[in-house]
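Q: I have 686 residues here and want to know how they pack in 3D. Can you give me a structure?
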Amino acid sequence: MDRLRPQDPHRIGEYRLLGRLGEGGMGQVYLARSERGRTVAVKTIKRELAQEPDFRRRFADEIAAAQRVGDRWTAPVLDADTNAATPWVATGYIAGPSLHEVVGRDYGPLPDRSVLLLANGLAHALRAIHGAGLVHRDLKPSNVLLTIDGPRVIDFGIARALEPGPGAGVTRTGATVGSPGFMSPEQVRGQRVTPASDIFCLGSLLAYAATGRTPFGALDSGVHILMFRIAEESPDLTGVPAPLHQLITSCLAKEPEERITVEQLLSATQPEAASRDPWLPGALVAQLGRHAVQLLDSENPLSRVDNPVLPGQPRTNPSTPHPPVAPSQDRTPQPSPGERPSSGGSVPPPPGPPGAPSQPSWPGARPAPRPTPIPSPYSQPNGSYQPPSGGWSPPGTPNAPYSGAGPARSGGWRDRKGPLTALLAAGLALVVLAVVLVTQLSGGSGDTIDEAYVGVWQGEYTTASDEVRELRFEIVEGDAGELVGNALTLTPVILCAYDVRLDSFDGEGLHFTEESNWSVPEDQTTEACRDNSTVQTLRISENGEEMVWTYEDQEATLHRGPGRTDTAVPEDLVADWEQEFTDRDDNDWSDVITIEQGAVGDQLMRYERREQDSGEIECVWENRLVRVEGGQLTFGPDQLVETGDDATCSVYAAIHIRLKEGDRDTIQITWLNRLEDEPAEHTRND
């Protein structure tokens, strides 16, 4: 889970956003809380999908169908707005890791008993999904979450309703939808997809849970190889325990009509009696309890001081003040009107570590550290799985194996350490309950930020050396000690991004310190943009429209800016802008600036230089949007992303761009380190 980014909204509907859970093929998923305190997952739909013809109708149909599934084995659909500019849907949040995380990273293959109970829980989920007229179509380990009382199926993002409809429905052919390694033969072939397709995917998922491997080859084998094996070859079930072999084989029949049905699965995996033992090994149960406590430990789970940090971004207490000190002027480029120089002083982009992204993410997509695998105290079950005699028996009324009710069962699936495990689990449950109650009753620490301070505040000031610096703060709700927003500080040649941690809030304003997140150039996170433990203050004016920022002897007046939006750029500026010129050596060049739509913090400007005669690229730069105010865009310093053969490409200062007064087909460009120069001009290139 990552922190919110400045381009993320504060709220969606009645839900206050707390963090980013991930991003899938359809859009971004956020952790949020409702006004009544329920924790939910809110998925927003990508702009390009929402603009597709007929998408909103299909999206609404799928939400309506998903609402019929129920919430025992799946994440319930709670709310949605399919007509919003950015469509969204809110579902119940499942406080547990995915099967992919548990098996592939944290723990390893599950014991036989846990796999059988996993199969039973997923069969219940599929019965509810299919009963609602849906085929999930993407049943894979990352879409199965593990909780103390059983598995849950999530992400109906590519589910399709069984009912026929224009452009939708399971009868559609020619489309391949699913995840390689966990698809059915009919999905691979683009044939009609029925509920039996989910059974095949379940077989691959159970094999993965039991062995840690997919039955048709490693996921990095290549998409086409995996799809061929799924469609044409027998599964490799090496390492699948004997008690599970027949069950998984019956799921993986190539022909849909030959596969085991959901009802037969329920009957085959039903315990003889409900057991008091947890369905997962004790070590995993403890891990799930810790996860739940951490989630409820604060109003903002991402405000904890133990958030992971990117390599090269240590928490320090610098002696140098904020804002960052720019390099000396002799490193600053000197662009002249009408020409973007190709040589001269620069701030060179530092080489990143091998395999590192070429540009920082916004504002801190920090990878979680790899947990140490937990050794399993769970012994192998004494009993073994035997399918009902005479083939798959008709379904009865299965007992839920996760309820913990009913007498203890001797032999069979019961582990030899069952009584001790049950006692430990019961104790853990009491501890979790106590912590949760204390957390909920405490309501967090004091010093809560007044709502008047929440929002975006931006402005600029001039240093004693006549250097212009820009500031942008985005403040969210929170208590003392929590992360309550983000900050951007821009000098002509350095852009710093910080996390804002609330020190205190009183009648004198909001007092905070800053923790380095990312920078342009990248190496400044440990230099000019490093952590700053000296307290700064934001104090709102009486009319609520101005904010005064103070830091030691420095001060700036800030004004309200546009909130988080993915359409921050004025539409008149979203275009290609071109300038042609001849340099001192009589070489003809074409400079094209491309400005895209997006949010503050995004990489929204591309500056490309080509030779006019050959069309070959000389240099390509990209710049992040820092501020939008009064029709003017402020972009951060250059990031060099491409260089032609034998080209000399420097990087340059941050820039202002705006439309020329009275001429919507011309933009004017001014570099922050040369504001006194006449602006360069580019014309619209349609």
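Q: Anything worth noting?
A: The mean pLDDT is 75. The longest strand covers residues 617-629.
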